[in-house]
Amino acid sequence: MTTHMIDQSITAKWEDGEYGRSEDHVAVAPQSVHEEFDKAMAMKLVSIRLPSALIESLKMIAEHHGIAYQPMIRDLLTRFARSEFSQIVYEMDEKMKATQSAEEVSAPVEAFMQRARAACG
Fold first, then answer.
1. How many domains does the chain have?
2. Could you name the domain of life of the organism this protein comes from (predicted)?
C-alpha cells in the first residue's frame, strides 16, 4: 500500500480559497452530470412549503454547527424516518406477541422452535 504525505501548505491554500475558487477554472456541469450524480446518490429533488421562520431557524442551527442546512435537514429527516419505522416495527411485534400468547401453541411449531434453539446452542 502506498501512502503519501499530505502537504499542509497546499491543504491550507485549498481551504482558504487561494486554490479552487478562480472563475477561470470554473464551469457549470452539464445537466447529464447533475442527473447522474442524483441517480448515484439516490436523491430526488422535492419541493416543500415550510414556514420562513422555520427555515431561518434551521439555517442558524446549521451555521452554528458549521454545516450546510440542506444536508442537516436531510440527516434530520432520515433519522426521523428510521426512528418512526423502528417504533412501528416495535408496536407490530408487541401486537404479534400478545396475539400469539393468547392463542394456543401448536405442537409442530413448538417442536420446530426447540430444534432451532438447540441448533443455535
1. 1
2. Bacteria
Whether 81 maps to a domain, the answer reads yes
In-domain check, residue 10: no
34-72 confidence digits (pLDDT tens): 888 888 888 888 899 999 999 999 999 999 999 999 999
Question: In terms of Cα–Cα distance, which of 2, 33, 75, 81 is closest to 67?
Answer: 75
String of DSSP letters for 19-66: SS--GGG--PPPHHHHHHHHHHTT---------HHHHHHHHHHHHHHT
- pTM over cut 0.85: no
What range does the domain containing 104 cover?
46-121
